[in-house]
Amino acid sequence: MVNFILNDKDISTDVFEGTCILDFLRHNQRLVGTKTGCQEGDCGACLILVGEWKGHLISYQSANSCLLSLGQVNGKHVITIEGLNQTDLTPIQQALLTEGATQCGYCTPGIVLAITGLFFNSSHFDSAQQLAAVDGNLCRCTGYQAIKRALIRVCQQLLSTASSLNHSKIERIAWLVEKQIVPAYFLQIPQRLQKYQLPAKPITTEMASVGTFIAGGTDLWTQPIDTSQPLIYLSPDKSLKGIHIEKNRCYIGAATTVEEIKNSPIIQAFFPKMTAYFKLIAATPIRHQATIGGNIVHASPIGDLTILFLVLETTLHLNSGHTQRTLALKDFFTGYRQVNKQPHEWVESLSFSLPSKHVLVNFEKVSKRTHLDVASINSAIQIHVEKDLIQQLHLSAGGVAPIPLYLAQTVNYLSGKKVTAATIRQAVTVAQTEITPLSDVRGSAEYKRLLLRQLIYAHFITLFPEQITLEALLP
């Protein structure tokens, strides 16, 4: 049985736990305010909010219901547009109306929920953070200027009264009720939700040998699911989540979400530009669900996180229930969508050595859209230069081979060399011998070879602007 709270209603259902929440809402509960759109997490028409009790507080995040299963909301609070209904329009709904920020209205429920989620999580944010709240919502007929005006209007209206507040998550809910952003029943949700909290069952070898592992599921739920196998949800296992430092290494649990990594003070302290890199990786609702372990095990040749963590000399920690082993991330990929992992094994965590202050890191990505799109190709670099010589270097590229590629030959060539335009041009020549790009919808093989050259150039121009210029690199 799956048990959770849906708006103000307790739900206990024996519907297959792999059923898409979007389908359950519309067909089983007849809550049709949640719309069916792309069913790939791109449009935001199906957006909901999901609240989770975390021991002492309740945390709400936006999520694409088309990429979420019943099993993933077990013990949680699911909010649809119907769950926000009150006698009058909420301030968010009123702002959208006042600014004429809706035409057909199909996308509007998702936008209302996305903005509502913004106020659940902060009372202090800038304009960029405000717009990021709706970065997973598309509106093809209204246009975006009216939506932006509505967002600015409601933020100015509400944040002017919250600027001096420093309240906890629980106190914030009371403030949201006071401002009529959410109905009064939200005040009882934290207490009601605690009764659903049960300890997660530890994963066993027997379970793993017959089941299908589910982490974030943001790619898995776009494909047909084998209903004959049990589903093993990794995210409830707290041992698979979190980021910590131990003996000069950073450890990240495999079920840690992309957004949690993006916002981690530990990650930001050692990689100040990491937040900017992560803005190129999916939309906020997807980052709320997608996990680092899922991104790696999925083994996509263009997996953004995989490409980035390849240059950090990342080690994977795997568990079979009986034995544990470690493996270098660059040795994990054996072929297209194939990895060095037994069916009964799962990735527990990954780790990497903390970089010194002299180490530089850069990530580059080219896609048809700057944001919210998969890469045509992507690339990352970690480099340490001392006394004008490259002392340490790691370089990766995605979209140019059947696997996320560590450019070993190029690394060997550059090691010990000076950072000069001539050296970099020759390094590009070496890199071209390592890659085997294919022509597909994201570009021809020739185009991808050109892109890799440009991204390698971009790494050095970005990190060494005083020594390397584009003019010096071009013939």
TrEMBL record:
One of its GO terms (molecular function) is oxidoreductase activity. Residues 1-84 form the 2Fe-2S ferredoxin-type domain. Pfam families: CO_deh_flav_C, FAD_binding_5, Fer2, Fer2_2. The keyword Nucleus does not apply. Keywords: FAD, Flavoprotein, Iron, Metal-binding, Oxidoreductase. InterPro entries: 2Fe-2S-bd, 2Fe-2S-bd_dom_sf, 2Fe-2S_ferredoxin-like_sf, 2Fe-2S_ferredoxin-type, 2Fe2S_fd_BS, Ald_Oxase/xanthine_DH-like, Beta-grasp_dom_sf, CO_DH_flav_C. Residues 168-357 form the FAD-binding PCMH-type domain. Gene3D superfamilies: 3.10.20.30, 3.30.465.10, [2Fe-2S]-binding domain (1.10.150.120), CO dehydrogenase flavoprotein, C-terminal domain (3.30.390.50). CDD domains: fer2. SMART domains: CO_deh_flav_C. The keyword Iron applies. PANTHER family: XANTHINE DEHYDROGENASE. This is (2Fe-2S)-binding protein. It comes from Thioploca ingrica.
